[in-house]
Structure prediction request, 460 residues.
Amino acid sequence: MKLSFWILRFLILVLVVGNIKLSAQNPVIQTYFTADPAPMVYNGTVYLYTSHDEDSTVNNFFTMYDWLCYSSTDMVNWTDHGTVASLKSFTWHEKSNGAWAPQCIERNGKFYLYVPIHGEGISVLVSDSPTGPFTDPIGKRLIDSGHVWQDIDPTVFVDDNGQTYLYWGNPSLWYVKLNKDMVSYDRTIGQNGIVSVPMTAESFGSKEGRDGKPGTTYTEGPWFYKRNNLYYMIYAANGIPEHIAYSTAPTAEGPWTYKGFIMERAPHLAFTNHSGIIDFKGNSYFFYHDQALSKGEGFKRSVSVEQFKYNADGTIQLIKPTKEGVTKSIANLDPFKKVEAETIAWSEGLKTAGDSKTCVYVTKIENGDYLNVRSVDFGKGAKSFEASVASASAAGKIEIRLDNSDGELLGSIDVGNTGSWLNWASVKGKMKKIKGVHDICLVFKGGKGELFNFDWWQVK
Ligand code: FUB
Prediction:
C-alpha cells in the first residue's frame, strides 16, 4: 500500500515535470539572442520586431547590428523573417554598432520602422510589407534634438483622431507629433517640435536620480498605447537592474499618473528589461526580455512573453516572468500547406539564415538537433511527409516524432547530397497516419558536422 502511494507520487512528478518540459515556451526565439520586443498586430498576425544581441559580445557592451522580425498567428509557433533592417540601411551615419530598440507601425498600407542608432538618435525606415525590405525615406536622422545619446527607444501610436505620437528617451521622456507622412513632425509645438514630458513623482513614481537629487522611477524603453479610452505608458523603471512600471493618462499628451510596477526583478531577467503589450484575438500579451538562454549574460538577451488579464478598471497586476510562457496555442497550423521550416515553437542547436529579400531557412543542422511545431492539425490523417532541403555534405535524415524529441516515431525521411548548400531538392517519405491536432518534433540525424539546410515541409 505504502509502496503504491510512492509509485503514484513518482508517476505524478514524472508527468508534471514532463509536461513542463513539453510546454515551456520561453524564451520564444532560440536560434538567436533577441531583445527589446516590439509586437505589432496586423491582418490577423502578430509581427514581433526585435533588436539582436550578437552571439559574440564585443568590448563587454551591447553588440547590436540589425533588427529581426518574427510572426505568429497562434502565439506558440513563431516564423522567422530574418534580418529586416540593419545599420547598413542608413548610409549617413558613422556608427558600426548600436541597433537598439525598434518599433514598427502600419499607416495607410505602409510600414514604418522607428529605430535608434545609439549615439545617432532616432531614425525611420519604410516598407510596403511588414517583413521588409525597409529603406530610408529621408536620408538623415528623424529626431533633431541636440541630445542624440538620450534619444533611444522610440514608441509610436496613432490616436483615434489620426494624430501619431512618437515618444522616446532615457532617462527623460519626450514626444513629437508626427505629420501624416510619418517621416517628419510638427515643428510648431515644444522646442522645435519636441515636447519634454514633466518628470514628476506623481507621473512616474519617485526615486533618487543619477545626480543624487530626487528623481522618478522612469528609466527608458517606453511603450505607448491606448485601451478603452485610457492611455498607457509602460517603461523600464528603477534604474539598473530594471523593473517594468507603468503610468496612465486621460489624453495622449498626459498628464501621466504613476501606477506602479508590472514586472519585478527575477533571477533569470537581465539588468535591462524592455516591454511591449498587445491585445490579440481576445487575449492580452506582455512581451519582455530575459537572459535565460545565455544563462545569465546581460548582453545576450532573449524575448519572452506572458499572457495576462487587465483588471476591470484597466489597471495591470504584477506579471510573473515564467519559463512556461504562453502554453496555449490559439490557432491550429495546417500542415497540408507548405510550412516554413523556420516556423518553430522550440528548437535546440539550430540557426536560421536569409533575409526579407531571399528565403529564410533553417541551417547549422547537426546530429540530434530538433525543432518542435505545436498544434498541427492532421485532420483525418496524412500518409506522407515532404521537405525541401539542400546539402553539400553526406546529409542525413529527418525523423518525424509525436510530441517531442523522444516521442513516437511517425516517419523518417532520408536526405542526400543535393550538390550545394543552396541547391534545394524535395525529399518525400511515408509517415504513420495520425488524426487530429498534435505537437510534432522534427529530429535531425546524421554523421559529424553540418547535415543539410531545410526550407519547408508539408504533409499529404
Ligand atoms: O537593447 C539596448 C538597450 O537596452 C535598449 O535600447 C534599452 O531599452 C535596453 O533594453
The radius of gyration is 23 Å. DSSP finds two helices and 32 strands in the chain. The pocket of beta-L-arabinofuranose is lined by residues 35-36, 51, 62, 100-101, 152-153, 220-221, 236, 272, 274 (CB under 6 Å).
